[in-house]
Amino acid sequence: MTIEEYHAFCLSLPHTFEDFPFDQETMVFKVGASKSEGKMFALTHITNFEYINLKVDPDESLKLQDKYAGSIKPGYHMNKKHWISVSMDESLPDELVEELILNSYNLVKRSLPKKVRESMTT
Known about the structure:
The protein has helices at residues 3-12, 58-67, 94-111, 114-120, and strands at residues 16-19, 26-31, 39-45, 51-55, 72-74, 83-87. 37% of the residues lie in helices and 25% in strands. The longest helix has 18 residues, at 94-111. The model has no long low-confidence stretch (mean pLDDT 93). The chain contains four helices and six strands. By secondary structure, it is of the alpha+beta class. The protein has a six-stranded antiparallel beta sheet.
């Protein structure tokens, strides 16, 4: 998956916003009714597209790290229990990467406050 494909896939998810809250090199995708209410579900370094960080269920994180050792690791510069870093070196099929992105998106979307989730359906 190229950075362009990653970018397009993330933005194809409903109520997704692109942001650069940390610096001009770290592209963050958030889900929410607005950018200010959004919560981060994916991020990467745009000039060094070696990995993406994704939110993950803690139990699933360990299973993924065992099954895809070397390609999926604890989240770099993130809470290691709730985030994973997914290698973008083509060692994983694009379908799996898309599934992991979608799982991250859904996990974060479910965690949004009820008022925000409800405003996203209108």
